[in-house]
Structures are given as structure tokens and as C-alpha cells.
Write a structure and sequence with these properties.
Elements (H helix, E strand, L loop, with lengths): L3 H10 L1 E4 L5 H17 L20 H4 L5 E5 L18 E6 L1 H4 L1 H10 L1 H7 L5 E9 L9 E4 L13 E6 L10 E3 L10 E5 L5 E5 L11 E3 L6 E5 L4 E3 L10 E8 L17
Antiparallel strand pairs: 1-11, 2-3, 3-4, 4-13, 5-12, 6-11, 6-13, 7-10, 7-12, 8-9
């Protein structure tokens, strides 16, 4: 599926952009399924807000058990200080995650149809295992910033094997918070690891205290239907959505079944169905 030039680009840059990976019909299937799931979702009184800058704040049971469930996480600006919604429910969700690729028949069928595992094998994963999926919305005007991070921080294996597949379900532009990546940054050390704490909850374990390289990030503005493949150690970022258009994306992360997946990883996936 990948050319020798694409493999070379991925090795040098730590990311790869593939146009027209998913069809308009397939995109519509995923976006409609997300809308249906949100419509059926009854928000609890205690609402879990997603924020990467204060991840420990969201590390309640609802969050920690999402590796084997389908859970809904709200945009921070969608709920006011009194706990009331500031926008309609369909526009309040930051993301759906993290096991719909296993538990929901629509997402499961689409993941199999797109055959991410085959691409993973071409990129060096011996035994691909889909460990996490997310439907990300980046809602109009309130879609939050996602700080510079490396996916292997959150999906850690020994040796490191994580690869992210980011599908643009809608056009991703600088105005609505497209991805930005650090070309070649996958060759620097993993900075930290997000894991379960011995005292309960979660914590970031420092691994490398060197600062991020002082170089500009590459804007990854892409049209709907594009696949961006991200090496697990590639530093990447997305700004807040300041536009009146959403930036929906579907992501799937693979790890290598041949690698050790520690028991203190925050995300504990389904082991059997």
C-alpha cells in the first residue's frame, strides 16, 4: 500500500500524509454514527471534561475505564461554572473514546474495511493491535487546544511501538485547529509517560528533561479524506478552533502485540470479547 518514497518520508519526518484515503461516503458513515451515539447519550450529573494540559484532573473512573468502553468527554467551554451547558449537546462533545473500534459495529466494520493493520505492518509493526480509537470533534469556536505531546506518552510499550492514524473527516485548516508536527522530532527521546499512580489516579513520569527543539512546527492543513500517520514519538499539537466550522477526525492507534504493554499504563484495553 505504501511506496518506497512514502516509507522513506515517514522514516525521515515521523509522519506521512496520504490524500483520499477515505471516501466521502465512508466519512459520512462515521460522522452520522457519532451523531447517533451522542443523541442516545444521556449526560451524567458529573461530566468528564477532556483537557490534555490538566490530564490528571480528568483521571476519574469514567476516564480510566474508557479503554474498554465507549465514553463521551466534553469540551471545557461547553459547560459553565454552574455545570450548565453553554451549547447544544451535539456541539458539546470534545471526543468519543476509546474502544468503539471493538464495541461499536459501525466503527469496527470501518476499521476492518480501511485495513489499518496492513499499513501498520508495512511500517514495521509485526503483530498490529488496535489499542485505542477516538472520534474527535474540535467544536466550532470552543474546540480546545491540544498541547504539544507524543502519543507514546499515553500508549507506552517496551520497546516503543505506537503508531497513530489520524483521519480528516472534515477539512482541517489553521483556522479550525489542524494538526501541527515537528518534522524529524520522532528521533528525540520520549519526554514523559502517563501512567497509573501507586497512590491512586494517574501521574506523569518524567523520562527526559531536555527542552523541545527550538524549531517551528509544520502546519498539516489537509482536506477531508486525508490520512495522517504519526510516529508514536513525533511531537505534535493542535490549536484551539477559532472558526465557526468543526474539525472532525477519527483516530486509531496501533501497538505491536510482540511488545510488552505494562500493567500500569493508564489505558487498559479489552482483553477478550
Amino acid at each position: 500500500m505504501l511506496t518506497s518514497q512514502q516509507l522513506k518520508d515517514y522514516d525521515q519526518q515521523g509522519y506521512l500524509v496520504i490524500n483520499d484515503f477515505i471516501s466521502p461516503a465512508q466519512r459520512q458513515v462515521l460522522m452520522q454514527r457519532a451523531a447517533d451515539l451522542i443523541e442516545a447519550f444521556e449526560p451524567p450529573k458529573k461530566r468528564s471534561i477532556f483537557t490534555t494540559d490538566e490530564q490528571e484532573r480528568s483521571s476519574d473512573d469514567y476516564f480510566l475505564e474508557s479503554g474498554s468502553a465507549i465514553r463521551f468527554f466534553f469540551e471545557e467551554k461547553a459547560i459553565n461554572s454552574e455545570g450548565q451547558f453553554t451549547v447544544p449537546k451535539q456541539q458539546s462533545i470534545n471526543k468519543i473514546g476509546h474502544a468503539q473500534h471493538q464495541l461499536d459495529p459501525v466503527y469496527k466494520a470501518m476499521v476492518e474495511e480501511l485495513d489499518f493493520a496492513a499499513v501498520g505492518r508495512e511500517l514495521g509493526i509485526k503483530e498490529p493491535r488496535a489499542i485505542q480509537s477516538m472520534h474527535i470533534f474540535k467544536q466550532p469556536s470552543i474546540g480546545g487546544e491540544v498541547g504539544l505531546h507524543q502519543d507514546s506518552t499515553f500508549l507506552y510499550t517496551e520497546p516503543k511501538s505506537c503508531i497513530g492514524f489520524w483521519l480528516a473527516l472534515e477539512d482541517a485548516t489553521i483556522e479550525n485547529g489542524c494538526l501541527q508536527g515537528l518534522p524529524g522530532g520522532h528521533k528525540i527521546a520520549l519526554k514523559q509517560r502517563f501512567k497509573l499512580s501507586e497512590n491512586g489516579g494517574t501521574e506523569f513520569e518524567p523520562l527526559d528533561d531536555k527542552p523541545w527543539p527550538d524549531q517551528p512546527l509544520k502546519l498539516l492543513e489537509v482536506p477531508a479524506g486525508t490520512l495522517i500517520i504519526l510516529h508514536g514519538q513525533l511531537p505534535h499539537y493542535s490549536a484551539a478552533n477559532t472558526s465557526n466550522r468543526s474539525r472532525q477526525a477519527f483516530t486509531l492507534h496501533l501497538v505491536d502485540e510482540d511488545c510488552h504493554y505494562p500493567a500500569d499504563n493508564w489505558l487498559q484495553p479489552i482483553t477478550s470479547l
